[in-house]
Amino acid sequence: MSAVFVLGPVGSSVIELPFFSCRVPAGFPSPAQDHMEQTLSLDELLDIDAPHTYLVRAEGDSMTGAGILDGDVLVVSRALAGRHGDVVIAAINGETFVKRLSIRGEEVVLHSEHPGYPPRYVLEGDDLVIWGVVTDSIRRHRSHG
Amino acid sequence: MADPVFALIDCNSFYASCERVFRPDLQRVPIVVLSNNDGCIIARSADAKPFVKMGEPYHKVRSTLERHGVLAFSSNYALYGDMSERVMTVIEGLVPALEIYSIDEAFADMTGVADREALGRLIRARVLKLTGIPTGVGIAPSKTLAKLANAAAKRWQTQTGGVVDVCDPDRRDKLLKAMPVGEVWGVGRRMNAHLTAMGIITAWDLAQADAWTLRKQFSVLVEKTARELRGTPCLALEEAAPAKQEICSSRAFGQRLYDLDPIREAVASYTTRACEKLRAQGSLCRRVRVAIRTGMFNPDEVRFSRGVVCDLPYPSDDTRLIIRAAQQGLEHIFRPGYAYAKAEILLLDLCQRGQFTDDLFAELQPSAAQKVMGVLDAVNGRWGRGTLRPARVPVTPHWGMKQALKSPNYTTSWQQLWPVRCR
C-alpha cells in the first residue's frame, strides 16, 4: 500500500522549516567559524554527479573475493580505460559480467574472485567491450531501512 | 572579431541508442521505440530503418518487425532524459557555449576554434566513450548550414566519420548542391512541394532564390533561411531557453474511460505535472484550459470533443487551486455515454512571478501557498516525483499508459538499477 498525503489549507505555524535557515549570531562569534571548510559529501567522494558515473547492482557471488557481494551497488566510471587489475563491467559477445581484468601482453583474461568460477580467456573472434571500470562499491549492513 | 561558427551535435537514433547502452546484447539487434501507449513507431536504430517507416502504427507493423527480428520498446523518458543530460554535460565541458535545442541535439559555439574538425571528432569520441551514445557533428558559419552539414554527416557516415565542416565556401556549395531542399531546417512537407513546383529542388536552389519572391510567397523566415544557407548568420546561439508562454500536459489513457471519476484522477494527475513545469520556470498562470475527447479515428466510435477555459481568481502556481479549477471545468464539459480516450491540460496566460501588475485591490496568491508548493517540489525533487501529491492522484492508475515493453529506469530508480552478473 502506498501512503496518501492530504494537502489541506495551511495555517500559520511556529515551526520553522530548516531549508533556508541561516542565522547570524548577535553575540560572541563561534570560535569554530574560522575553521569551517566544507561539509563532507559522498557525492563528491564517489564522483556521482559526473556524466560518466553510473550505478549498477551486483548480482551473484563470483566476485566475493574482491569484496563485492550479491546486491551491492557498484559505482562505475566510463571515463577510465580498463587496466590490468581493474574490476570492470565487461561485455563479452553481448553478455555482461563483473570481472577482474587481466592483461599480460597479448593475453586478456576475465577472472572471477571465487573458487567456483573458472577464468574466461578472451580469444580471437571474441567480442570484448569494457563497459566501465568499477571504482567503488556500496553495501548496506542493516537489513531494514 | 572572428566570424561566428556554429556546430550542431545530434545524437544518432537517440532513443534506440539509449536502450542499447544498458543492453550490450542488443548492439547488433535492430530496435524501434514506440510512442506513449505503444501507439506508433517514433524512433528506429539505423539497422531497423529498412523494415519500418517512422510514425507507423505498432499494431500494423508488429508481425513484420517480429519476422525481421526487430525488437520494440515502449518509450522510457526517464532513461532518455537522464542520458540526454549526461550527453549535454559532456559537450558543455568541451565548448565555450552551448544551446540545448532538444533532448538529442545542441548547437555549440565554435567561433575562433583553430582546428574545428578535430574538436568535432573529440566531441563525438568523448560522448561515445562516456555515455555510449553515437553522435554526428555539423560545423558551419550559420545554424541552418550546421544543421544541413549534420544531416550530411549522418547520410555519409562512413565517408565523413560523422563530422562535416562546411566553413569553406567550396565545400559549402558542394553540400548545398548535394542536399534536397526538403532536408533544410524549417522546410516541411508542404513547403517542400510548393518549392519543388517553383523549380527549387536542392538547398542550392533555395540559397540562390530571389529574396523578395521568397518573402512574398512564404514568409520573412524562409528568406532568412536562404540567407543562412548562403553563409550569413541570422540566428544567434540562445543559451537560456525563453520561458514558455503556455504549458501543456496531455496524454491518451491506457484504455477507454466511461465514467467521470477516473477522468477526474487523470485530470488531477496531468494538472499536477503541468504545475510542476510551471513552477520550474518560475511562472504563474491566470487561466487553465481542460479538454477531453473520444478516439477520433475509429469509425465505430461516436466522436465527442470538448474543452473549456477556466479563469483563476489570481495568477497562481498552486497545484491545489489549479486542480480545483480544472475539476470544475471538467464537470462542466463531461457528458456521460462516450468512450473517452484522452484529456489535456493547458496552462494559459502565463506571467513571470513578480513581473505582473494588477490593480491595488485585486486578490493575490497567499504567501502560504508558495511555501507549500516549495516544500512539495523540494520533497519530490529529493525523493522522486509523486512522493508527495494531491490525494486525487493515484500512484498506479488503471487508466495509466500502456507501456508493455518498457525497459527499466536504469539510471533514475534504486529499484531498477542495471543488474550485472557476478557469475
Structure, explained:
The complex is a heterodimer of chains A (145) and B (423). Chain A is mostly beta strands and 145 residues long. Chain A has 2 domains: 3-10 and 50-138, Umud Fragment, subunit A (Ribbon), CATH 2.10.109.10; 16-45, no CATH class. Chain A contains 1 helix and 7 strands, in the order αβββββββ. Chain A has one helix at residues 42-46; strands at 53-59, 73-77, 87-92, 95-104, 107-111, 120-122, 128-138. Chain A has a 7-stranded antiparallel beta sheet, with no helix packed on it. The longest helix of chain A has 5 residues, at 42-46. Chain A starts with 41 loop residues before the first helix and ends in a 7-residue tail after the last strand. Mean pLDDT of chain A is 84; it is low at 14-22. Chain B has helices at residues 14-21, 58-67, 77-92, 116-131, 143-155, 157-160, 169-178, 189-197, 203-208, 211-217, 220-229, 260-280, 319-333, 367-383; strands spanning 6-11, 31-34, 41-44, 71-74, 98-102, 105-109, 135-140, 163-165, 247-257, 283-294, 305-316, 340-352, 418-421. A 5-stranded mixed beta sheet of chain B has the order 5-6-1-7-8. In chain B, strands 9-12-10-11 form a 4-stranded antiparallel beta sheet, with helices on one face. In chain B, helix 3 (77-92) packs antiparallel against helix 4 (116-131), helix 10 runs antiparallel to helix 11 and helix 12 packs antiparallel against helix 13. Chains A and B meet through strand 1 and strand 4 of A and helix 3, helix 4, helix 14 and strand 13 of B. Strand 1 of chain A pairs parallel with strand 13 of chain B, so a sheet runs across the interface.
